[in-house]
Amino acid sequence: MASQIDGSFDYTATGVLGDKRNTMLRNELHLRDKVGHVKTRGFALPSEGYVYGLPNDRRDFNAAYALRGWAGTYPEQIPFSSNKQATERDFMHLNRGALTAGLVKPTENFDYRAMHDIRQPLYKNKRSGKMSRRLPPTMVFGVPSRPSTPIYELLEHKYQDKWLATRQKEIQAKRSAEAKRRVMSAPLASRGNQIIYETRASVLRTFQNPVDPPPLWHLTRFTTSARPHIQTFRTDASKSGALKNLETDRIARQGNYGSGIYESAKY
Fold first, then answer.
1. If both were cysteines, with which of 25, 46, 84, 239 could 233 make a disulfide (CB 3.0 to 4.6 Å apart)?
2. Which InterPro entries does the annotation name (predicted)?
3. What angle separates helix 106-115 from helix 91-100, to the nearest 10 degrees?
């Protein structure tokens, strides 16, 4: 026995993690390292009557075994009543029905789901049966090979020439736009005779009236009951006058929304 060996508890955590006991000799957390020795680890072997390996499944496939229907060879057929698969609840239809009924609170939604049990339809797997597809005689199986590197285009600097041509077009378009802007911003006396001026009729033809985007969707109950608790302006006229003054004062202020400090005059 391990407890009968002299000095067996010298390299254990005796007195630190409890009194002497035989489990300390087998627990790695209770053992202490010996100077100049390696740790000895191992697993306990099973008892003497233990048999290693897998059991052999011996079956006598004779006539009697065949007459019994080859029991155990094929999986047993489950009755039709117990073979029915359980479907999941369709929460999308439940939420849509609750909104249609005007239920938006969590408690009301919970009661609606308790009273209505809507399940998702059971879609049969179309690939479960044997499906055969006629393949064309020119069908090629495998992974397509990687196209070869266009070495000739690399040697000819084709990609560089293409990039340079694109840059030249961009620079030319930028120069044309800049020249047109300079001509249009010049006085009328210094402009040429070949410039077509925009008239009021041509501007109105190309002008599109700004259309306000449609408002966001809100629940009907909030459009009537959700009102502000504090009214800063006493009347609508005072509110419109304050907004008009804000629009006028915004010109001389800094910031994106015209609410910053006053800036100096620009000449």
1. 239
2. CFAP77 (IPR029147)
3. 120
Phi, psi at 222, each rounded to 5°: -85, -25
Listed residue (36, 44, 2, 43) closest to 12, CA to CA: 2
State the Cα–Cα distance between residues 69 and 76, nearest whole angstrom: 11
In angstroms, the CA 123 to CA 209 distance is: 51
DSSP annotation of 229 reads S
Parse the chain into domains and list their residue ranges. 1-37
Amino acid symbol at 261: I
| pTM attached to this predicted model | 0.21
Token pair listed for 53:
């390996």
* pLDDT tens track for 148-173: 878 888 888 888 899 999 999 999 99
Residues 6+ apart with CB under 8 A from 117: 89
Average pLDDT, the chain: 79
